[in-house]
Design a protein that fits this description.
This protein is mainly β and about 350 residues long. The protein is built from two helices and 23 strands. Strand 4 and strand 5 form a beta hairpin.
């Protein structure tokens, strides 16, 4: 299987698609730019930058501060698009500071996602930005220091391919779920097989600036005797959800797989009641990874047709299809990322036993 190295030269051959996009003005002095935040905009924008041939160079995630989104422009860019998370996309029109109102004070230094891995838009993702924002599933971390460099190489599955991500030893994990709060501030060597993580880079995409641990499956069943404690035990990141409703069209969801019929992933969560289950559509192209818990096997890229439901006997269900109790059954758990309420990334943890 072809491996892809995320580095300074990882600029994509991914073509921009900006037809019919609305326009958004940005004030610039040639090096820095600022977009005024309107009342209808969210507090987060993702800006993607393209070269003169329309190829995606990098992407940055911006937070609003003092009523504006401020950022530094990468060298060699020719155009840019802005995505208002949960809303719409815009073609960015740059105006020089001499002809427009002064830019607001700079916001926090923008952080970019790891440079997209691949020369095409994976069919699992509706738009290129959905591919850019995909998380990674860790397979192993190797210390590759030498020749004057101190760094780790994180081997992972991301956007449906194998990738190798160079991370400096002084780069730390910025966020981790409460059960693993001790990991915050640790370097990349604290990551382990099966972790779901998000890598933030600089604008050029050549340097990982920080890491966010979204989910760690280790010991999630240890000492648990209810569904609710499984999901509230602190293994999930703040972005992840459980219960009967998706909090938004784009979300992370965790649940026990109880059905896969008609290209719908049925996930039980929170209480074990059927009313607290999710039905999430997926397709044959949905990016899928499988982690065989309790084995030495590394996570691998699979097909959505390989997703298997949990082995839960009928006696565990009530007449209302609620799971009435937990026992020593074999559970398959899914950590799912949705876009427009459909699965785009599915991580399956097989045979997670209580």
């Amino acid at each position: 299987m072809k491996k892809l190295m995320i580095s300074l030269t990882a600029a994509l051959m991914l073509l921009a698609s900006s037809a019919n996009a609305a326009q958004l003005s940005a004030v610039t002095d040639g090096s820095n730019a600022s977009i005024e935040k309107t009342a209808l905009m969210s507090d987060m924008l993702v800006v993607t930058y393209y070269d003169s041939e329309g190829r995606l160079m990098s992407a940055s995630r911006l937070g609003a501060e003092n009523g504006a989104f401020s950022f530094t422009l990468p060298e060699g860019y020719a155009s840019a698009r802005a995505y208002d998370i949960g809303a719409e996309s815009y073609d960015v029109v740059f105006e020089t500071a001499a002809t427009a109102a002064p830019a607001a004070e700079p916001a926090l230094t923008p952080e970019a996602t790891a440079a997209p891995a691949g020369k095409y838009l994976n069919p699992s993702y509706p738009e290129e930005i959905d591919q850019v924002l995909a998380p990674a599933v860790i397979t192993k971390v190797v210390n590759t220091s030498g020749d004057g460099t101190d760094q780790y190489t994180v081997h992972a599955l991301m956007r449906g391919v194998e990738v190798e991500i160079p991370v400096d030893i002084d780069t730390v994990i910025k966020y981790a779920p409460s059960a693993y709060s001790w990991i915050r501030g640790e370097d990349a060597s604290a990551l382990q097989k099966g972790d779901v993580a998000y890598f933030l880079t600089n604008i050029k995409g050549d340097k990982v600036r920080s890491i966010e641990l979204l989910y760690r499956p280790t010991d999630i069943f240890s000492g648990r005797n209810s569904f609710q404690s499984l999901y509230t035990g602190g293994s999930l990141a703040r972005e992840a959800s459980y219960g009967s409703r998706l909090p938004s069209e784009n979300a992370y969801v965790l649940g026990i797989i109880t059905g896969t019929s008609n290209n719908n992933l049925t996930l039980y969560s929170l209480t074990g009641r059927a009313s607290d289950s999710f039905d999430i559509p997926y397709t044959k192209d949905t990016v899928t990874y499988i982690c065989e818990t309790g084995t030495r096997n590394v996570p691998y890229i699979a097909s959505s047709s390989d997703i298997a439901r949990s082995s839960i006997p009928k006696k565990a269900y009530s007449d209302d299809d609620d799971i009435t109790y937990l026992d020593e059954y074999s559970y398959n758990i899914a950590f799912v990322r949705t876009v427009d309420r459909e699965a785009v990334d599915i991580v399956v943890y097989e045979a997670a036993e209580k």
